[in-house]
Amino acid sequence: MATTKVTITLEDRQLESVRRVVASGKASSVSGFVKHAVEIALSDVAGWQAMLDDALRQTGGALTKKETAWADRVLGAGAAKSARRKRA
Amino acid sequence: MGGPGARRGRREERATEASVKGVTLDAGALIALDRNDRRVIALVARAVLTGARITVPACALAQALRRPAQQARLARLARQPSTDLMVLDGPAATSVGLLLAASRTADIADAHVVVCARRTGQAIVTSDATDIRRLDGTVEIVEV
C-alpha cells in the first residue's frame, strides 16, 4: 500500500502516552500506533453516518424537504442572528 | 481609506466568521437524541451532511451520560471530529460564574451551555427553554 510521510503535532502528554504503549510492546512504533488510531477514527466517522441513517429509518425514513429546510435553518440560525445583531 | 463604514464592515465580517454554523446541545437534547427524538436526529444528520458543527458542553454530557455501554449514540457523537466537546476550563468557569451571578440562578450545567452557545454564536437545542431563557433572553433556542 502506498504511503506518504506527513508531519503531525501531538500534545506532549499524548506523545508520552503513545511512547509508553510502544515501550510496553502493545504497539510496534509511534507511527504504527497513529496509523491504527486513524483507522479507528475513520471507521468511527463512517459508523456514525450509518448509525444516523438507521435512527432516521427507525423514526420514519429519510428527511422530508420540510424537515431538511427546518434543520438547515436551525443550523444556520445562531450565526445569522449574530450577524444581524452586529448590523443593528 | 478605511473610514467608519469600512471599519463597521470589517467588524461585521469578523462577527460572521466568529459564528460557527451548527447547534449547541444541552443535556435534554442529548437525552432526546439517545431516545430517538426525530428532530434532534434530523439536526445531527443534517449537520453531518452540511459540515455544520455540533457543540456538546462537557457539563451537559455529564448530565446525560449515565450508562455509556447502552448509550452508544451519545458516546459516538462525542467522539466525532465534527463535534466540539467543550470543557469547563478556567475562562469558561469564570464566564459561568459571572452569568450565574447576573441571572441570580445556580445551574452550572445550563450556564455552561449558554456560555458555549455565546462563544460559538450557535442556537441552543434544549428540552427546557424556560431555564435557558432565565440565563439569557437573547440566545436563539430550539425546544425539543
Describe this structure in words.
The complex is a heterodimer of chains A (88) and B (144). The model of chain A has no long low-confidence stretch (mean pLDDT 89). Chain A is built from three helices and no strands. The relative contact order of chain A is 0.05. Chain A has 88 residues and is mainly α. The longest helix of chain A is centred in the middle third of the chain and has 29 residues, at 30-58. Helix content of chain B is 59%, strand content 14%. A five-stranded parallel β-sheet of chain B has the order 3-2-1-4-5, sandwiched between helices. The radius of gyration of chain B is 16 Å and the shape is globular. Chain B has a single domain (20-143), classed as 3-Layer(aba) Sandwich (Rossmann fold). Chain B has helices at 4-18, 27-34, 38-50, 58-64, 72-79, 90-103, 108-120, 129-135, and strands at residues 22-25, 53-57, 83-86, 123-126, 141-143. Chain B is built from eight helices and five strands. By secondary structure, chain B is an alpha/beta fold.
